[in-house]
Design brief:
The chain has 10 helices and 4 strands; from the N terminus they run ααααααββββαααα. The protein is mostly helical. A two-stranded antiparallel ribbon has the order 1-2. Strands 3-4 form a two-stranded antiparallel ribbon. β1 and β2 form a beta hairpin. Bound molecules: iron/sulfur cluster (2 copies).
């Protein structure tokens, strides 16, 4: 199956399919066993991730705020030889939940679609878009949101719909 990688097309399709995407979320939550869903998502994700080159995209670094834990801040500040306090003042802010996040979008360390601190990037960046994790069903809200910005998430979600071809009838 041909993957959609064009960010403009992805944005247009997610705008058009917004209601359907939220309805499908409801179907998955109510009808599919949590462990079965994880197995299916992990398989689709492995296949799709192997076909998408994140270094050609970088869209998550332009559109989302990864959360930095203390060890992330220590590692990345050391990587650019800046003290913790100076790094925090220059690059970080607290979000509405009190988490440490970068203070600009795009991320200040993104240059030409590449992370200039790749080896020292926060764990949240390494893990994004988190589809390899357990309990996919508990993160569905974020998944639907991320279909708008991440080609991996977009394509996984579209292929997931194809796995349950009768899902629309089930929710009527
Ligand atoms: S630290 Fe690197 S991977 Fe993380 S958001 Fe910034 S540019 Fe992207
Ligand atoms: S994780 Fe998604 S949004 Fe981020 S660079 Fe890879 S494909 Fe693009």
């Amino acid at each position: 199956m041909q993957l959609e990688k064009d960010l403009t097309n992805i944005q247009a399709q997610t705008d058009k399919n917004s209601e359907e995407n939220w309805q499908f979320r409801g179907f998955l939550k109510m009808n599919i066993d949590e462990d079965d869903l994880d197995r299916i998502v992990h398989k689709i994700n492995a296949d799709i991730s192997s076909q998408i080159d994140c270094t050609e995209c970088g869209n998550c670094c332009r559109n989302s705020y990864p959360i930095l834990k203390k060890n992330d801040v220590a590692k990345i500040s050391k990587g650019i030889s800046l003290g913790l306090n100076d790094f925090t003042e220059k690059y970080l802010q607290k979000d509405e939940d009190g988490n440490m996040v970068f203070n600009t979008l795009p991320c200040p360390f993104l240059k030409d679609n590449k992370c200039t601190q790749y080896d020292n990037r926060p764990n949240d960046c390494k893990s994004f878009p988190h589809l390899h994790k357990e309990c996919f069903v508990s993160r569905l809200w974020g998944v639907v949101e991320n279909t708008k910005i991440c080609p991996i998430v977009f394509n996984v979600y579209e292929q997931l719909k194809l796995k349950f071809p009768k899902w629309k009838k089930e929710i009527l």
